[in-house]
Amino acid sequence: MSIFLEFLLLAGSLGLAGFYLTLYGDAIAEKTGLGGTWVGLAMMASVTSLPELVTGISAVRLVDAPNIALGDAIGSCVFNLLLIVMLDFLHREAPVYTRLSQGHILSAGFGVILLALVAFSILLGKRATGLVVGHVGVTSLAIVLLYLIAVYTVFQYERKNLREHAGELAERHPRMSLLQAVWRYLAAATLVVLVGLRLPMTAEHMATAMGWDRTFVGTLFVAMATSLPELAVTLSAIRIGALDMAMSNLFGSNLFDLFIVAVDDLAYTKGPLLAAVSPLHLVSTQSAIMMTGVAVVGLLYRPKSRVLRTVGWVSLLILSLYVLNAAVLYLSQDGRAIVIGG
Question: Which helix (H) or strand (E) is 190 found in, with range?
Fold first, then answer.
């Protein structure tokens, strides 16, 4: 019970830090003249993914748990996509897909490419140990390159449409100076780093105490906790009506989470990280690919109806894939077989 209480305390601290990161990051964006969509894609996405970055590095360096590190990164991608369902539910005026820019398909597409690259490397497993530069896998180098290309391409695309979103961040923090926003932002970021250092240790203790598989703990519990800043950003964005900023943050966070896989590989000195993890991570990786594909369908088709006045069928399908992913991970622990029929 004490381990669970510690985990909940750390998770709550991350959620609080994420709220203030959003607040002061928004203020910095306003004072410097950055657009709302770019704030969501790059600034908010990289900041709200700080827990995954710190947690991943500490997982491989302090507790030698590569499965928790990768499970956190991929699991966070899955959880971020689940937040689209919440975004659709809380936006009561109309299904959220009818109000979002189709430009998000660009960042979603890059996310699918990076996820597929991770899945390909996991599938190769030990056979990819020779494809290294030093101790870092070639796949990780490709991830870094594709991430930089994705950020640059999306930035160029969004810059052309900046005028459409220029009013989203107008005069929301008139009483706060840029210097105040920067210092408070750094304080919130420090809290994220400190909590992120402790979180993998708590997750390791929880996995041991409950007899759970590290992949299961990393993909569900740690990923959910480290995604609380994204949750805070999404709620704040809904409150101020910046739906595109919320969606940009979610897809941008997924891009950055996959970039973190390469950083974790650099920190893991025993060889390529993706050759040392459980093949079970393929379940979450493929789930993230399918969920992203469904979101793209929603952004293109723009369904206007809701199921029982709750969410659209696109959101229900995303939710179903998340539940299926969690169920398969749980049932696959310790070699449990998943039998369908017969």
Answer: helix 178-210
